[in-house]
User: What shape does this take?
Amino acid sequence: MVIVNAWPLLTRIWKLQRSLIQQASPCIDELSLSPRELMLLAFVERCPSPSGLARELRIPTPSVSHALKRLEKQGLLKRQNHPDDLRRFNFVLTRAGKAALKKGQECLQNTFRDRLSRLRPEEVDELNRLLLILTEDER
Assistant: This one.
């Protein structure tokens, strides 16, 4: 194992993520969504419960609950009773939620495509391969 000073790499990853979100924000703002709310919409089908979303996205449960209420009020999500426990509920995307998610994904994808255009195709493939390795324990 190679011992490396990981801090410079970590700060570059953080700066890249922040930069992409900042660059895509005007487009996302048109949807009346925050980047966090967009991510909640993106993950709600895989993790429909508030606690599941909080775990998956590593966001405090109260923050997730607050954002879910806002998204529900906007008509982008609706509550459904949990199939096994009527005391619990799950969220599902509404038609408007699916449309907002699609548009938001386009905003972020276009921004990232612009950034990836600085790389050669084989470098993009390598970046994807490395990111899969680094996120392997999160599947």
Summary: The chain has a mean pLDDT of 92.
